[in-house]
Amino acid sequence: NRPISELFAQKRPLRSLEFFPPRDDAGVENLRAAAEALRRINPDFVSVTYGAGGSTRERTTQVSAMLKTDFGLTVMPHLTCVGHSRDELNELADRIYENGFRNIMALRGDPPKGSVEFKPAPNGLRYANELVALLKARHADLCLGVGGYPEKHPEASNEDVDLDNLKRKVDAGASFITTQLFFDNTVYYRFVEKCHARGITVPVIPGIMPVLSLKQVRRITQLSSAYLPPALIKRLEAAHDDADTSEMIGIDWALTQIRGLLANNAHGYHLYILNRARSALALAAGLAA
Ligand code: FAD
């Protein structure tokens, strides 16, 4: 698996997809079927999220290995600071590296459910920039991605502070930024401008999620505090909870977003596909048309 930073230098636009580790074996089989279907569109890389704790964390390793070995994909496992000491993070970094991965998405992780404040594990790390530094010190040739928040991270007191903190991650050695999902491209364009003004010059990959329903998008925007454009709400409301119609609206909205982003020089796009192949395939077809 080659470093994604090499791909940035060679190809544009890059298309990446995000999977999450399923809870059970049936979920892994569904994911395998989705990966099989997605072969057709040949994503440049895929990423696999890291759970808040428990057994899905092992599945990040399992699913990442499966996607790399069985499907020949360039895979970027995610890693968070939650619940891990520095020693454990170094061991996890070694394991990922020895298994042939050269990319990691380095994150702090969220506070556990029910608490608002993030608490580092004993002898653990407090912020993602510390994880970037730890991983780089351990394996200098790892390519690291980090998260960016066009609508500000919910815990940051203001945008400027958040951008300073984003810059810390880049200065510590991150090669690119993948953004939190957003539904209005102007939010992304403003963010990229602000990154540039701050001296952040690494690629900022827009994170796009084709929505599945009004209920889903309301829940997600509550968590991420992303702006939900009234035009999108109106169209979803008119679908009256019909799953297929809602999904088509989500795909159409994402397609318009991606067309605009690529026309405005984005390096590529990252799709939050929730382990489903359908929307990614429809988007690829729409973009090729
Ligand atoms: P940080 O960059 O550490 O930022 C967290 C907060 O602290 C921000 O408010 C920031 O402004 C502030 N801050 C940062 N550094 C400093 C500093 N040095 N001093 C003072 N303040 C600071 N979560 C998972 O659990 N698993 C996943 O796989 C996962 N994947 C994700 C993928 C992407 C692309 C994104 C955008 C998010 C993902 N998340 C994931 C969610 C993420 O863990 C949460 O958003 C988390 O709350 C913040 O993580 P971070 O790495 O951005 O943290």
Automatic annotation (TrEMBL):
EC annotation from Swiss-Prot or TrEMBL: 1.5.1.54
GO terms for MF: FAD binding; methylenetetrahydrofolate reductase (NADH) activity
CDD domains for this protein: MTHFR (cd00537)
One GO cellular component term: cytosol
Alphabetical UniProt keywords: Amino-acid biosynthesis, FAD, Flavoprotein, Methionine biosynthesis, NAD, Oxidoreductase
Broadest EC class assigned to this enzyme: oxidoreductase
Gene3D superfamilies documented for this protein: 3.20.20.220
Stored NCBIfam families: fadh2
InterPro entries linked: FAD-linked_oxidoreductase-like, Mehydrof_redctse-like, MTHF_reductase_bac
Family under the similarity heading: Belongs to the methylenetetrahydrofolate reductase family.
GO biological process: methionine biosynthetic process; tetrahydrofolate interconversion
Name of this protein: Methylenetetrahydrofolate reductase
Pathway per the UniProt entry: One-carbon metabolism; tetrahydrofolate interconversion; Amino-acid biosynthesis; L-methionine biosynthesis via de novo pathway
Pfam family, one: MTHFR
Catalytic activities: (6S)-5-methyl-5,6,7,8-tetrahydrofolate + NAD(+) = (6R)-5,10-methylene-5,6,7,8-tetrahydrofolate + NADH + H(+)
Entry cofactors: FAD
